[in-house]
Amino acid sequence: MPVTPAIRVLRTAGVSFSNHCYRYEPGGGTRVSARELAVDEHAVIKTLIMQNEKGEALIILMHGDREVSTKALARAVGSKTVQPCDPVNADLNSGYQVGGTSPFGTRKKMPVYCETSILQLPLIYINGGAKGYLVSLDPNELVRVLRPTLVNVQR
């Protein structure tokens, strides 16, 4: 299993997690990881790097089978607009390659927002910091470590 900055953060925080490697497909997203791991895509959490109108980056965590309403997210974060970062800026802010972005152990400190309904799941699967690598953990551990702002921005 890879030892990424995300894994170091989880270990340091004493988080109990399981490793899950799968065959990565470029552009396949959570649909592929859910299929390869035989889990519900709703429990696979995507880590999206977005930016506001000032170019300030933020992280939004969303169910794999749902989309983010950028208008609702902009209202929730107090910005005029929010849009996805281009891949180069996402990589620079997170320290991870798009497709292997974890919310844990990012290069730059960014505010983290989490869709509230994620906390209703008994177990989540989230990127461990490499393409084709997820970790599963209790969503309450995600809250304990990241201290995200909870939002309702799915559409």
Describe the structure.
The protein has a single domain (5-151), classed as YbaK protein. The chain is α/β, with parallel strands linked by helices. The protein has helices at residues 5-12, 29-37, 70-77, 87-94, 139-146, and strands at 18-21, 44-52, 57-63, 82-84, 112-115, 124-130, 133-137, 149-151. Helices cover 26% and strands 27% of the residues. It is built from five helices and eight strands; from the N terminus they run αβαββαβαβββαβ.
Architecture blueprint of SSEs:
Elements: H1 5-12, E1 18-21, H2 29-37, E2 44-52, E3 57-63, H3 70-77, E4 82-84, H4 87-94, E5 112-115, E6 124-130, E7 133-137, H5 139-146, E8 149-151
Parallel strand pairs: 2-6, 3-5, 5-8
Antiparallel strand pairs: 1-7, 2-3, 2-4, 6-7
The unreliable regions are: none
What is the straight-line distance between the termini?
Answer: 34 Å
Largest sheet data = 8 strands, mixed
Which topology does CATH recognise? Answer: YbaK protein
Instruction: Report strand %.
Output: 25-35%
Mean pLDDT: 97
* Highest-level CATH class: Alpha Beta
